[in-house]
Design goal:
With 303 residues, this protein is mostly helical. It is built from 17 helices and no strands. The N terminus is likely disordered.
Length: 303
């Protein structure tokens, strides 16, 4: 039975979940009151209230760089500095600039000492994890848990444990996160760790729950297909991979495993069709290792 490697935790999903909960700490509260006044506002002459609303509006629309500019303006003006630093930190994480996020978090710590706040520890843990400082990330997640046993901390600490090779602790944290909040993201990430540990039946149970909550999440179908594949349920695996491909046709792993499943079902012509698609996508992603693995399979099958 061929393997194409472990399924990583979907870090972007955890991060988006965290940002959705924290929100923009000042703008959201003022948004309903100030949105009309913020439309077309001349930011250079705008009031701090209007700036907060406009920054939140830009962030929610996906204009992250513009939101950063406005929060930077508020910080330079000395207006709502702590909230603006929180929000700018999250924006830096969204655009994958963890060194800039860390600088803002260090500023927040200087402002808050000696009573560092929960969200500062949580965001610093996420940031240090992105910077591959896993001991530092774990330290900050532990400090956050000391203030609030929030499922977001467990979900994010699991990433640091996974990156440190401590899959048993990652699984334990994700189990705790699911107990507190059985969201599709938490269930999926727990299943991803269980797949790495070879706990395929448990993985299936959690993916069934995740899909029941969100039937339009392609990675859940793909990962469920992987579990079915390793359990020898090739027909069910094929169904899951076809569904994953229909929802998101740009993921080569689904085509790769679909080809492997069809090969196991002795349907080589169909298998080769999907393996070729996987090879094309891997090549487009410059994933030479996976590309070569697929080409070797095709060579062996005469495809």
């Amino acid at each position: 039975m061929s393997s194409i490697g472990s399924q990583p935790i979907q870090r972007w999903k955890i991060l988006v979940t965290m940002l959705a909960l924290l929100g923009t700490t000042q703008g959201t509260a003022a948004q309903a009151r100030g949105r009309a006044n913020a439309t077309g506002v001349q930011l250079a002459q705008a009031s701090p209230q209007s700036l907060r609303v406009e920054a939140d509006r830009q962030f929610q629309r996906g204009n992250v760089i513009r939101a950063i500019q406005i929060w930077s303006q508020l910080i330079l003006q000395g207006q709502d500095v702590e909230a603006s630093l929180y929000n700018r930190t999250q924006a830096y994480l969204v655009i994958r600039q963890p060194p800039l996020a860390l600088a803002d978090l260090n500023s927040l710590e200087r402002i808050q000492r000696p009573h560092i706040k929960f969200h500062t520890y949580l965001l610093k843990g996420v940031t240090l994890n992105e910077l591959h400082d896993f001991p530092g990330a774990l330290k900050n997640f532990n400090l956050a848990l000391g203030q609030d046993p929030n499922p977001l901390v467990y979900a994010n600490r699991a990433i640091a444990y996974q990156n440190s090779g401590r899959l048993d602790l990652a699984e334990a944290d994700l189990n705790q996160a699911v107990l507190s909040e059985a969201s599709p993201a938490n269930l999926y990430n727990l299943a991803a760790i269980q797949r790495q540990l070879g706990h395929y039946k448990q993985c299936l149970l959690n993916l069934n729950r995740a899909i029941g909550l969100n039937g339009g999440f392609p990675p859940a179908y793909s990962l469920r297909g992987v579990c079915h594949y390793y359990l020898g349920a090739y027909d069910m695996a094929v169904g899951d991979f076809l569904r994953a491909n229909a929802l998101d046709p740009g993921q080569p792993e689904s085509y790769h495993y679909l080809g492997l499943s069809l090969t196991a079902l002795k349907r080589p012509k169909e298998a080769n069709q999907f393996l070729l698609k996987a090879a094309d996508l891997y090549l487009g992603q410059n994933n030479q290792l996976r590309y070569q693995q697929v080409m070797q399979l095709l060579t062996k099958s005469g495809g």
